[in-house]
Amino acid sequence: MVVDDDVFERMGASDMFTHAGYEVLEAENADEALLIFEANSKIRLLFTDVSMPGTLSGSDLALQVAQRWPGVGIIMTSGRPRPELLPASMLFHAKPYEPLAVLRQAKVMTVP
User: Fold this and answer.
1) Which of 7, 45, 51, 57 is least buried, going by the fewest C-beta atoms within 10 A?
2) What pLDDT digit, counting tens, does each position of 32-70 carry?
3) 109: which residues sit within 8 A by CB, 6+ positions away?
């Protein structure tokens, strides 16, 4: 799942994952992402931005996903410094991120 309030960032990340063979779901904020997670138990990876509008930030989303769906890999990205309170298993990439590095980590996180 790709979560980013910036439509161009979200489209770019979705295209990156789609071209790598992933089936991609998109959400424009954390609240929408949680609704999608609740309706789809097959999600194996969360790729989210830190700063988003709504009641939850990307950091809040990462914490909830790690707690509620511990088998989901989490990769967070931001143009700002890495947030402090994040799940230990989560990976962080500063924007602009290197797509190949993100895809390598995503592959490791989604291997059964």
Assistant:
1) 7
2) 999 999 999 899 999 999 888 889 999 899 999 999 999
3) 44, 45, 73, 74, 75, 91
- Predicted local confidence at residue 66, as pLDDT: 92
- What are 78-109's pLDDT values in tens digits? 888 777 767 777 889 988 999 999 999 999 99
Asked if 50 contacts 77 with a C-beta cutoff of 8 angstroms, the reply is yes
pTM for this one? 0.93
CATH number assigned to the domain comprising residue 31: 3.40.50.2300
Burial of 92 (0-12, 13-18, 19+ CB in 10 A): middle
Collect all residues with Cβ–Cβ distance below 8 Å to 65 and sequence separation of at least 6. Answer: 37, 46, 72, 74
